[in-house]
Inverse folding.
């Protein structure tokens, strides 16, 4: 299997970054923009992706389809692509690289049965690929996963997790459970303290006794509203992963609540490009408290 | 109010440390050991605390009673002390320094109504006081809290949080929600990964991309079993605190589950003195996975 022509669904921030890296390294990068946002369309055109008019032509031209989407869109997109494969008889490989539970990935893989397409499970860790940045890590599993080694070193690294579908998703879920779990826990604790009127006292204690934690929360909490809307579904997938492993889903159901809260603040409409990078943790947390007060008043 | 004679209930690890520091700094330190463990009795005798035969003589001799206990014992102890005050007509101040929700502290304060005792809300952050160690922080609130400034600088610092009962407990709850929330989240994530068969892959990714997180989990996770049993109640108090502030209680109900899991492993019977400090995170997590398997098999 050679992977020259790579279809990206969809060229959002991460998908756009992965596609752009592959383009820089000589791949033919295609996409299909039916139903995508104006921002995503503009990005795909700016990056120079080749546009296919529909999924039928996309599966006919691609050697592999990379699904890089918010997790709640993963299944519907896979259904559409599998339908296009059945309609056309074309069967490129399909790599499910979204932040979904291993069982979700296994269920999505089942959609391709009978199409002839190879199904690859995967998960992406790190920022989108960019020259001069630490390479993005792409974890993959499945019998056909070794083919993705063709992308290794192209501003990304490929990590093989074995032949079993779900293993790469497990790595992604557990990793994200820590990083996003911690960020939402920090947001929740500072919001609780502010709501209880002791925010200043708590901040002083944390700054004094665990300065690394204080620096991390100051750096990360203000950036969360921009992404909070699209991370709710990811937290629910992590909760599902934990429950299947016999562990409590509560951490990440609570994390989903915190992303909902952040998303409901006035800052929830920000994007990574438009967000106010001078905003402090204190102001971000104050917006969460204001949203809680609004909810109480509405009850 | 002078605070020369200080009663400690109970001289466990933290209470023993606080009492020993006050003894070093010239206070008269008393306790009452009826119903305490052999370990606690041995500690009180080793530290040289003056032993009162019953709570009646303790409240008669003490200028202040410091309640330093596992949170689930806080209310019953306060009830006994309040009863002893009513019986004897003696009314030293009572400082509730346990890890309880602000509403729990307010309810405990109510038990002293009519006794004439001043009630002080408090929370302790940091390791037990010891010479040459960063001072233990004692956060206090309530009208009578300023009297505790007498302990400031005696291997501990006193932090005034204002006249309202509950404010000091709020600080403690929010702080512990971060520290113990993060430790249990790390334990949960590594247990999930091991249970899903990808522990080695996840550890390598974390060690590479977030080495500070890796070092923290390696240092902290193996130490948790020794304390896990007595931290379950604290997580439930934090969950109550969050819920009252309009925030999701799920993080810390899950944290309580993780402490229950750690406590059920063979390492759960350790103490800080007896624990095997050479044990790795990997072995601690493997014991959690084994406990999960045992539970599955029992279902």
């Amino acid at each position: 299997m050679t992977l020259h022509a790579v279809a990206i669904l969809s060229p959002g921030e991460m998908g756009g970054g992965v596609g752009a890296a592959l383009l820089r390294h000589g791949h033919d990068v295609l996409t299909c923009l039916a139903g995508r946002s104006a921002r995503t369309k503009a990005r795909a055109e700016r990056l120079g992706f080749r546009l296919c008019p529909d999924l039928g032509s996309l599966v006919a031209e691609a050697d592999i389809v990379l699904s890089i989407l918010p997790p709640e869109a993963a299944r519907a997109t896979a259904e559409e692509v599998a339908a296009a494969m059945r309609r056309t008889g074309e069967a490129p490989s399909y790599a499910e690289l979204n932040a979904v539970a291993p069982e979700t990935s296994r269920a999505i893989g089942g959609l391709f049965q009978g199409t002839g397409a190879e199904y690859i499970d995967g998960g992406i860790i790190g920022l989108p690929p960019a020259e001069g940045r630490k390479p993005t890590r792409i974890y993959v599993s499945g019998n056909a996963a070794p083919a993705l080694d063709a992308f290794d070193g192209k501003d990304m690294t490929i990590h093989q997790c074995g032949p079993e579908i779900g293993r790469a998703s497990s790595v992604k879920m557990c990793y994200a459970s820590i990083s996003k779990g911690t960020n939402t826990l920090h947001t929740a604790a500072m919001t609780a303290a502010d709501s209880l009127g002791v925010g200043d006292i708590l901040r002083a204690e944390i700054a004094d006794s665990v300065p690394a934690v204080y620096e991390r929360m100051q750096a990360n909490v203000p950036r969360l509203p921009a992404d909070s809307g699209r991370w709710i579904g990811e937290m629910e997938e992590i909760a599902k992963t934990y429950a299947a492993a016999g562990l409590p889903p509560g951490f990440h159901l609570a994390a989903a609540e915190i992303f909902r809260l952040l998303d409901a603040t006035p800052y929830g409409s920000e994007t990574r490009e438009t967000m106010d990078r001078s905003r402090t943790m204190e102001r971000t947390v104050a917006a969460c408290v204001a949203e809680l007060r609004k909810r109480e008043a509405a009850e």
Notes: Residues 125 and 137 of chain A are 5 Å apart (CA to CA). The mean pLDDT of chain A is 96. DSSP finds eleven helices and eight strands in chain A. Chain A touches chain B through 57 residues (CB under 8 Å).
